[in-house]
Amino acid sequence: MYLSRPVVGVLPDGYAGPLGGAGLSNVLVAVTADLTGDEVTVLPVVLCVTDFGRGQARAFVAACGAGERRLRPSASLGLEASRLVAPFARATGWGGRCHALMSPRATVGQAVRSAGAALATGAGAVAVCEVRAADQGYATAAALIRRTDPGTGYRTVPAPDDDADLVSLWRCAG
Prior knowledge:
The protein is built from six helices and seven strands; from the N terminus they run E-E-H-H-E-H-H-E-H-E-E-E-H. The chain has helices at residues 22-31, 37-41, 50-66, 86-92, 108-120, 169-172; strands spanning 2-4, 7-11, 45-48, 98-101, 125-133, 138-146, 154-156.
């Protein structure tokens, strides 16, 4: 498997809906620029979103406990991490599978192993995305993992038992 150089972006502070997902959409568009339109529309996407999930859950619980106003049922949709890729889907016609990893142990290494499974079942490429808490909002990064070496800008993915440098896409960017 071969990993592209990650592309990074940001989600605005106080992200509360799909519009803020434009930060992730922009990095996904950039990282998939070399794929054909057909490849993009079926591209599997794996999201590492533990920090995002924690932040959204805290905001939702705080809003529920505020008691000054009633929440609309749609307020709970902000908890849904897959909404982060909605702007990417609208911009590119993407309709592939999206897998969100949200646990204290969800690392980029785990996402890369998931990508390996998708590649083994026939996908030509998989996008791995990371959404991390930052000083202002969330920082985003995405990288493309391919089954075959497309050339410049890619490196071999470490073996599954040697993925210490895959804790974060930012570490891979170095």
